[in-house]
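Ticket #4471: structure export looks truncated?
Reporter: QA, pipeline team
Priority: medium

Steps to reproduce: submit the single chain below to the structure queue and open the exported record.
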Amino acid sequence: MLNLVLWISVVLVFFIVALLYYAANFKKRLDDKSKFPYVKRDSILTNSERSFYGVLNIVLKDKNVEVFCKVGIKDIVKTVSWDYFYFNRISAKHLDFLVCDKSSVSPILAIELDDSSHDREDRKRSDEIKDRVFKTVGIPLVRFQVKSGYNLGAVREKIEPYLNGKPC
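Actual output as written to the record:
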């Protein structure tokens, strides 16, 4: 019995020392400006997203809307109560594009640009969650497949029904 108590005490002391060492080094790493491991990206959009963003701007030109890129879902919707289970389902997810009313900045339409990675099982599950979230809050979510080029008329036709009587 004494050996068990001694063993548990040694493990506990080791754990506490390791935790204190980690905490001290974590703060030191944050304070060390020379080793801060971040660099600026060349663009916030992939080439495909940049191309489609240009198409959206042409199609929505002269409309009373604004197109935002890479918007965090947690910035568009919120959980009814502070429930980590549901918040965690959206906290790290983003939309490719969000179309908002220009004057109120109220969301009108969510747009996702799907490439071949959306065929993976983990991405399918993520897409299902996004679809369900936006259906629940009443914001239409329209998906487009990544293409080398887009027909402006086809894009216009697909999003126009969601623009509250604002023909493209």
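Status: closed, not a bug. The export was complete when the record was re-opened. Leaving a note from the reviewer for reference: Strands lie at 65-72, 94-101, 107-114, 141-145.
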